[in-house]
Specification:
111 residues; single chain; mainly beta; 11 strands; 4-stranded antiparallel beta sheet; 7-stranded mixed beta sheet
């Protein structure tokens, strides 16, 4: 059974930082591209960042220069470092691998 578990969300003031983690069991992250998505209240889920099998990265326009996605192979974990957070970054952040999704972790940025 594949499980993706996100952690690291919370409440932070604007300008602050958080680091989200996504750890997988039942699959090897090395074999897949991994994405972070977010969904704000009343909005559709959107891509935040993606890291390919060989380390190539892409970012949503609204987070470029502020967020960094990375992977730690030894821990089968992918991270999303979020800096200079803004209130519009508030939402539920999900880890995605293929057809599998984590349960999400809540991020709230106060102004």
């Amino acid at each position: 059974e594949v499980q993706l578990v996100e952690s690291g969300g919370g409440l932070v003031q604007a300008g602050g930082s958080l680091r989200l983690s996504c750890t997988a069991s039942g699959l090897n992250f090395d074999d897949y591209a991994i994405g972070w998505f977010r969904q704000a209240p009343g909005k559709e889920r959107e891509l935040v960042a993606n890291i390919g099998r060989f380390g190539g990265t892409t970012y949503g326009n609204s987070v470029k220069g502020r967020f960094t996605i990375s992977r730690e192979k030894a821990k089968n974990t992918v991270y999303l470092q979020m800096n200079s957070l803004k209130p519009e970054d508030t939402g539920v952040y999900y880890c995605n691998v293929g057809r599998w999704w984590g349960q999400g972790t809540h991020v709230t940025v106060s102004s």
